[in-house]
Design a protein that fits this description.
Layout lengths: L5 E4 L9 H16 L3 E6 L9 H14 L8 E2 L4 H14 L2 E4 L3 H13 L24 E4 L6 E6 L3 E6 L7 E3 L7 H11 L4 E5 L3 H14 L5 E5 L2 E2 L15 H7 L3 H9 L13 H7 L10 E2 L2 H14 L2 H15 L5 H4 L3 H4 L6 H7 L1 H4 L8 H6 L2 H16 L4 H14 L4 H13 L7 H8 L1 H13 L1
Parallel strand pairs: 1-2, 2-3, 9-10, 11-12
Antiparallel strand pairs: 4-5, 5-8, 6-7
């Protein structure tokens, strides 16, 4: 093996990209990038009935949104079927595999008899040690001649040593009677040919590792480093499913979670670096290693995800937020005036958790006159309040448009009427934004500018 690792993600294009697949991709990407290695993409599209171009495109889209760039061209497993068959024939020639002519009815009869006698129902083919000269004409499968004695041990970087007794494993089919390869064979051949050194995947594949190790051994190929990571569970501790909410990674994109926040959160699902919860990509790449992966299943916590999302939005550069909002709007179909939003981003990015919340908080900047106050805001625009706004208008017209002078002008009118600043800020808020929950009135006026601010106040006092 080379010092620089080669990792891969190998999703099946049979639907959306599941959040578990996204996290597995992230772990592989982080490990490769942290170690100066290579991250490859293989599309396991052998299920021709369920594999669709749309689902393949969804894989690309999910990885691209997450910012997980892969190296080289994606590999199609289906297109490599001749190579898989070639390896099966090589194993046949070397004596590590054999042709089996048993029919499905014969296999089922064997299992029924074993069940009745209380024996193992693992199929033991009568063709395992047969003389090829006795083989009949007709279809056959190629089976692995698996060792019957001893055990197969897997050294797993997460789970430790995992040992399976060989008498618990059957002679699995490598090549079907129609010449198509099985999943077990295809995965091993692809990983070997692609130079994969580290197979980081969900621990639902742990039972496959012993079987796959036997193929590596039969071909005298170096085994990869296996790292089987725990699955993601819902908040109730049960396997993640639709009942827990969104399970597709692009659903979170449509919810307005920034990609860097999703990367941060997914990295913490089953991996940890001390007590660090919030970190950037550079830190994740510097810190990530397999020994930080936990053995216990991780639990999806949407509140924690939103908290991480809010921290990332607050820390993002304004132009990064603008790009993220543009992507979210295109994906969700929301209409956002980015030109109007742009100057408001800096004052609204604190205290929100998602991109749609940020857009909503910037409503004052993207709304057009006349500003229609909602029910609560309208109550702040009573006769007395409108009178104070009318008095304020000439002071604002003559003020230098700085926060200090704006605050001084508003404070002076409030004091002249013997009220606190808040008493005047409420109708001012209603006039400028039409809402009661907004950024600071002074921040809003600075974003809107003198002419737009005065026009909105005049509209409010004229009603």
């Amino acid at each position: 093996m080379t010092n620089a690792p080669v990792t891969r993600i190998a999703p099946s294009p049979t639907g959306m990209m599941h959040i578990g697949t996204a996290r597995t991709a992230l772990f592989n990407w982080l490990y490769a990038r942290a170690k100066g290695g290579t991250f490859l993409l293989r599309v396991e599209d052998t299920d021709r009935a369920r594999s669709t171009p749309e689902a393949t495109a969804a894989i690309y889209e999910g990885l691209e949104w997450l910012g997980l760039d892969w190296d080289g061209e994606p590999v199609s497993q289906f297109e490599r079927a001749p190579r898989h068959a070639e390896v099966a024939e090589q194993m046949l020639a070397s004596g590590h595999a054999y042709r089996c002519f048993s029919t499905q009815d014969e296999i089922e009869a064997f299992r029924n008899e074993a069940r009745a006698e209380g024996r193992s129902t693992l199929f033991r083919s009568p063709w395992r040690d047969s003389d090829p000269s006795t083989h009949p004409e007709g279809p056959s499968v190629i089976r692995l001649k698996a060792p019957r004695d001893g055990a197969t041990a897997i050294e797993d970087a997460v789970q430790g040593t995992v040992t399976t007794r060989n008498d618990q494993l059957d002679d699995m089919v490598l090549l079907r009677s129609d010449g198509t390869p099985t999943y077990m064979l295809a995965v091993v051949v692809d990983d070997h040919d692609m130079g994969v050194t580290h197979v980081i995947r969900g621990d639902d594949h742990l039972t496959n590792a012993a079987r796959q190790a036997q193929i590596y051994d039969a071909m005298e190929w170096n085994r990869p480093v296996w790292a089987h990571i725990p699955l993601i569970h819902g908040p109730d501790g049960k396997k993640l499913s639709k009942r827990h909410g969104a399970t597709g990674v692009l659903e979170y994109a449509e919810m307005g979670i920034p990609a860097q926040a999703m990367r941060n959160y997914l990295a913490r699902l089953g991996w940890s670096h001390g007590d660090d919860e919030f970190f950037n990509d550079a830190q994740a790449r510097a810190w990530f290693d397999l020994d930080g992966i936990n053995k216990a299943p991780a639990r999806l916590d949407l509140k924690k995800l939103e908290s991480i999302s809010g921290q990332h939005i607050a820390a993002m550069q304004n132009h990064e937020i603008e790009d993220a909002v543009r992507g979210w709007a295109e994906r969700s179909g929301a209409e956002v005036d980015l030109n109007a939003l742009r100057p408001a981003i800096g004052i609204v990015k604190g205290g929100v958790k998602t991109l749609p919340q940020l857009v909503d908080r910037a409503h004052f900047a993207t709304a057009s006159r006349p500003i229609e106050p909602d029910e609560k805001a309208a109550k702040a625009l009573d006769t007395v309040s409108r009178g104070m706004l009318s008095e304020l208008t000439p002071h604002l017209r003559n003020a230098s448009w700085t926060r200090e002078e704006l605050e001084a002008a508003v404070t002076a009118i409030a004091e002249a009427h013997g009220v606190g600043l808040g008493k005047l800020a409420a109708p001012l808020r209603a006039a400028l934004a039409g809402r009661t929950a907004t950024p600071s009135v002074f921040d809003m006026m600075l974003v809107l500018g003198r002419e737009e601010s005065l026009a909105r106040i005049n509209d409010a006092t004229a009603t």
